[in-house]
Design brief:
single chain, alpha+beta, 60s Ribosomal Protein L30, Chain: A
Length: 125
Amino acid sequence: MRQNITGGSPFEPTIGFSRAVRVGDNVYLAGTAPVGADNEDAEGQTRRIFTIAEKALAEAGASFKDVVRTRMFLTHIEDWEAVGRVHGEYFADTRPAATMVVVAALLNPAWRIEIEMDAVLAQNQ
């Protein structure tokens, strides 16, 4: 069974995407940007992403302890430590497979970070 989870973006139907999709015990969180934290530094933007992600994961019946993979997209290489520290606060114990890459730009020039997450619910049962 497939469950599409909306984040409330007006662009979801136009572009054709969901904030997250749950298929069976797998949850796929789309690239999540720091919407509403445009004026924050990399740490603040990362924290905003985790707030958005937590809500979407919960709606899918998951939590951060179920996350098995993350992908972090940075626009400024010097932000890697700040982003990594916040990531570590949430994942120090679960330690998902993680990738961090630097990209030329994100959709909003003020965004310094975007994160994707994959979760598997069966691992905790």
